[in-house]
TrEMBL record, chain A:
InterPro entries reported in the protein's UniProt record: MFS, MFS_dom, MFS_trans_sf, NO3_transporter
Stretches for region Disordered: 487-527
Full protein name: Major facilitator superfamily (MFS) profile domain-containing protein
Family: Belongs to the major facilitator superfamily. Nitrate/nitrite porter (TC 2.A.1.8) family.
Bilayer-spanning residue ranges: 64-85, 124-145, 152-172, 223-247, 309-328, 349-368, 374-400, 407-427, 439-458
Entry annotated with the keyword Magnesium: no
Primary site of residence: membrane
UniProt membrane topology term: Multi-pass membrane protein
Automatic annotation (TrEMBL), chain B:
GO biological process annotation, one example: response to nitrate
PANTHER family registered for this protein in UniProt: HIGH-AFFINITY NITRATE TRANSPORTER 3.1 (PTHR34806:SF1), HIGH-AFFINITY NITRATE TRANSPORTER 3.2 (PTHR34806)
Listed GO MF terms: nitrate transmembrane transporter activity
Name of the protein in question: High-affinity nitrate transporter
Gene source species: Daucus carota subsp. sativus
Amino acid sequence: MGDTPGSSMHGVTGREPVLSFAVASPMVPTDTTAKFDLPVDSEHKAKVFKLFSLANPHMRTFHLSWISFFTCFVSTFAAAPLVPIIRDNLNLTKGDVGNAGVASVSGSIFSRLVMGAVCDLLGPRYGCAFVIMLTAPTVFCMSFVSDASGYIAVRFMIGFSLATFVTCQYWMSTMFNGKIIGTVNGTAAGWGNMGGGATQLIMPVLYSVIQNVGATPFTAWRIAFFIPGWLHVIMGILVLTLGQDLPDGNLGALQKTGNVSKDKFSKVFWYAVTNYRTWIFVLLYGYSMGVELSTDNVIAEYFFDRFDLKLQTAGIIAATFGMANLVARPFGGYASDMAARRFGMRGRLWTLWILQTLGGIFCILLGRANSLPIAVTMMIIFSVGAQAACGATFGIIPFISRRSLGIISGMTGAGGNFGSGLTQLLFFTSSSISTATGLTYMGIMIVACTMPVTLVHFPQWGSMFLPPSRDIVKGSEENYYVSEWTEEEKQKGMHQGSVKFAENSRSERGRRVASAPTPPNATPDHV
Amino acid sequence: MAASTLLFVASILLSSFALSCYASGTFSALQKSILLTSSPKSGQVLKAGEANITVTWSFNKTYPAGTDSAYKTVKVKLCYAPISQKDRGWRKTKDELKKDRTCQHKIVKRDYKPETDSVTWTVERDIPTATYFVRAYVYNAEEKEVAYGQSTNDGKKTNLFEVEAITGRHVSLDIASVCFSVFSIVSLAGFFYLEKRKGAASQQK
């Protein structure tokens, strides 16, 4: 027994939970030779997502990863709730405030692209530590800023730290099995994104505490920035001392022992940019994550000015937007995984379209709301839609490519930031468009830019409206993933990782897994 | 289910109406019956935290006697001139007084006296760099504005002065900033170097 997929009886106890927090054994066989705290699959990726454990390496990686990303979000958006003070100290115009917002998300377009390649080549641990510790000085630099250009420059540099998004997602993909990756990635990124909400609470509170101790307003906000700076340094040290790249060890050590083959950047890059799905997701993410970032930058000031609230009150309301990430983004990943169980990849695509479009509609309504209670309600529903869409996006990304996962994650992340910068430039920088109108226009743009998801088609799984290819070879997972390697590379055995991944990805057929015929030449008995 | 939805919608609507049930006064309805002068000369630059402004105000006797019978309190405020409101929607002038954001800094609040009153005020350290004039609002017993006076003309073009704010920067902050930054870079480089050395040593074994 055990020749055909799904027939192994390993690990079947009947007591395993049926949620996306765990993958039961008949679906994905457990590698019993591995000695880890959690059950793992053939790639030694965890099959169980135990939230409140710190087990090395899987869960420890999860916690290090999301907290680092959370810290970078806190520092990137730390200025936003303090803008009413900063704009007076530095004599900023609306254009300056808007440009600083664009700058804060633009830096990471570049850094996320670079980080994708760094993860593929050097590993996510170094990637994370370098970015977080090299951007700590930029956060401390806020104490030097004295005019608009300095403010814009520093926010631009702090924004580089958002590259930790890529290390976070990449690290999760190396540690957790594909069947639960939607939930894991959604939770890690969502909790990281919460930093954008937490900062709207933290910074005004820090500011008022420092003021009460005796500092004047124009000094107090500068001192408040030291706290995010210290968090950067602390997290960097923890990642270096406690983290590892892969379940079996660090990338450098494994590459030397020959267990992980080194790949060429030009090849990895080529397969990323020539896959049209990459570009569709770059656009889509610009209008789920992108609008979340834009809103993080404008919402506190919007509530402060439009509804005449105190700084702390505006901060609390703005915080609920970002803090919804605690559940909204993991919910998106979970919904994607649930839809995939029944409908496979098609379910994931529909889930994404529905969530993102709903977010857009409620963004339009937020801009049009004239009273505080209605505005807050619309904002909360908008936040859930947009953030769940982010989670659902990363439920699909790991399946676009196995070889170029790092670069595609990086490009998608960059797309998020590009969308944010573009949206802030178009709708939130000019004095002639009020912030309320800007929010409405942003909502319309979200709905429009979500339509392209209907074009994403996988030969082995189909698309939103079309069925998968009926050809036995073209319609197989192996063909799709192994086609990224040339014959010479296959002869060197470089494609083995993709073959294993293809097997594990058969779950994306939804209910049809058992009835799909096994294609010829699928899994060789030995190399 | 339908009843609770209806109740929810109704409570949202009611709370939004509640906010608009106060009669809002407008600036154009106020009487300009206060004469006000301020000490800074036109174009003078004052340093925040150091310079003083002396404001003197009194009831304009050319108005009929008894006009000021309802006047109870006076609030003197520092207000933004149009040039400092440009491209800054958060300082916008609106006729509806509840929404007007021209005068954001309070100088003093006093009981109304028909005789001349004055105050000398040190420009506070949280006043931003901008161009200003001084205006006094007079309130009645219900705390509603009824009259005003200002140091500039109606077009807010004459007799404006500037304030130069503190930077908020301190040498001690700058030094602390540099120290922590250096620590961050040095510890990263240190770890990297140590790990590379450990890796090279284990290779040689």
